[in-house]
Amino acid sequence: MIEDTIIALSTPVGKSGIGVVRMSGKESLNIAKKMFTPLNKNIGIIPNLMVLGNIDLGSTKDLGFFVYFKAPKSYTGEDIVEFQCHGGIAVTQKIIEKALSLGVRLAEPGEFSKRAFLNGKMTLDQAEGVIDTINAESESELKASSSLQKGILTKTILDIQEKLIDVMSEIEVNLDYPEHDIEYATKEKINEEIDKIYKKICALLNTEQQGKIIKNGVNIAIVGKTNVGKSSLLNSLLGTEQAIVTDIEGTTRDIVIGSIEYNGIKFNFLDTAGIRTTNDKVESIGIEKAKQAINESDIVILVLDGSKELDEQDKQNLELTKNKKRIIVTNKIDLKNIVKLEEETIQISAKNNINIDKLKDKIFEKAIDGGNVSNTLILTNVRHIEVLKKAKKDIENIKETIFDNSLDLVSLDIRQLYECLGEITGETIDEKVIDQIFSKFCLGK
Question: Strands 256-262 and 51-56, how do they pair?
Answer without folding.
Answer: unpaired
